[in-house]
Design goal:
449 residues, FAD/NAD(P)-binding domain, seven-stranded mixed β-sheet, 21 strands, globular
């Protein structure tokens, strides 16, 4: 048997790579993890964690306005200091980065602070000039924001840079209509910016239930966000006063103070040297893997966003766990990609699990849909017209709940428990037989008609 420097060499210390390295090391494997930036990856450093903290900060804008109806004497005009929030978020990111680092070190994994490129089935070259060998290589390098190839694209930012702004812009144009675009649209709007979203099609949040995304669009328009659909991105021109004029196909030009791209994410495989080991990529540049995360090269595996299967942090973590258990633990572990819950931390948030109504009708034919369209109690007292919508999709033949979709306050917290019920194949009758917890918004799930 050949001798290697390591049993496992992981490239990328994001959520998936960290979990795989930690579990493999706990099973006794000699593990190294290469990370060229910071331990924690996109989610911790420049993604879901800092973004959720900004979402929390943004919610205070409406909460402070509503507080008077609940008896609090709050000034009509409250000052907001962006730099205070930004810097406090950075502090929390630093804390989690240290926690991730400590977790790896405690497990016995070696952290290599360098870029690593594959040079063969069992070797990698570090940016320090060293070459390391390993019996198994795991690619967990994630993805990066896509930037349109249009004139002046260098003037735009992505979600990566949004956390580092010196000030909130007065006017911002966001290109895209997916979850990142809608989340940052809500954040910037609540912080006082005029937000314009542009999209090449007429749809927002494709993949989510039509009724739910239509409700988000209605509420967003009511709040004052501006949407431009069927808008092709033609270019950005910087004007003499430092602003940016964005040219759009089918629409008049828009002048703003900041342009942000939220038009998808691309797997980080470029320049990784994967061709040296014969690793197959798909048309999007993602690593093609089998159900056990193995690439076309027997000694190289991949997990997370770099495979472009499901770009969600919890999925990357589960894939990392399964990989490590299969190679170094008891084995026979595979990730189930059915009924994955997801949420969009827009304003208000939406969440869903299982089939949408359209998907269920196409797949099952016979479908029953139950819904509740209501004004949350807090909104009633606050004199806020914003309404929540809960929707349950059931198999018309078996009564099995095949999808739950929601928009309203705190629905991401509610959908987690609801996802267990959908995953377990429970029926509408079993929801009906569950006593309502009153007064809550979640009780609507067992009262749907």
């Amino acid at each position: 048997m050949p001798e290697y420097d390591y049993d496992l060499f992981v490239i990328g210390a994001g959520s998936g790579g960290t979990r795989a390295a930690r579990v493999a090391a706990a099973h006794g494997a000699k593990v190294a993890v290469a990370e060229e930036y910071r331990v924690g990856g996109t989610c911790v450093i420049r993604g879901c964690v800092p973004k959720k903290l900004l979402v929390y900060g943004a919610h205070f804008a409406e909460d402070l306005k509503d507080a008077g109806r609940f008896g609090w004497n709050v000034p009509a005009q409250c000052d907001f200091d962006w730099k205070t929030l930004r810097d406090n978020v950075f502090e929390e990111v630093d804390r989690i980065n240290k926690a991730y680092t400590q977790t790896l070190e405690t497990a016995g994994a070696e952290i290599v602070h360098a870029r690593a490129e594959v040079t063969g089935p069992n070797s990698v070259r570090l940016s320090t000039g060293e070459t390391k060998t390993a019996k198994t290589i795991l690619i967990a390098v994630g993805a990066h924001p896509a930037i349109p190839a249009c004139p002046g694209h260098e003037h735009g930012i992505t979600s990566n840079e949004a956390f580092h702004l010196d000030a909130i812009p007065k006017r911002i144009l966001i290109a895209g209509a997916g979850y990142i675009a809608n989340e940052f649209a809500g954040i910037f709007h609540q912080f006082g910016a005029h937000v314009t979203l542009i999209n090449r099609t007429k749809d927002i949040l494709r993949g989510y239930d039509l009724s739910i995304r239509d409700r988000l669009l209605q509420i967003s328009l009511m709040k004052g966000l501006d949407f431009k659909f069927d808008a092709g991105f033609e270019g950005i021109e910087k004007t003499d006063d430092g602003c940016f004029t964005v040219s759009l196909a089918g629409h008049d030009p828009v002048t703003v103070d900041l342009v942000m791209f939220a038009t998808g994410r691309i797997p980080n495989t470029k320049g990784l040297g994967l061709d040296s080991a014969g690793v197959t990529l798909d048309d999007a540049g993602a690593i093609v893997v089998d159900a056990d995360n193995r690439s076309s090269c027997d000694s190289i595996y991949a997990i997370g966003d770099v495979t472009n299967r499901v770009q969600l942090t919890p999925i990357a973590i589960r894939e990392g766990q399964a990989f490590a258990e299969n190679l170094y633990g008891a084995g026979n572990v595979r990730v189930d990609y059915e009924n994955i819950p997801s949420a969009v931390f827009s304003h208000p948030p939406l969440a869903g699990v299982g089939m949408t109504e359209a998907q269920a009708r196409q797949k099952l034919g016979s479908v029953k849909v139950y819904s509740s369209d209501f004004r949350p109690m807090k909104n009633v007292l606050a004199n806020r017209d914003e309404r929540a919508l809960y929707k349950m999709v059931c198999d018309g033949e078996t009564d099995r709940v095949v999808g739950i979709h929601m928009i309203g306050p705190d629905v991401p917290e509610i959908i987690q428990a609801a996802a267990v019920a959908v995953k377990a194949g429970l029926t509408k009758k079993q929801f009906d037989e569950t006593v309502a917890l009153h007064p809550t918004m979640a009780e609507e799930l067992v009262l749907l008609k």
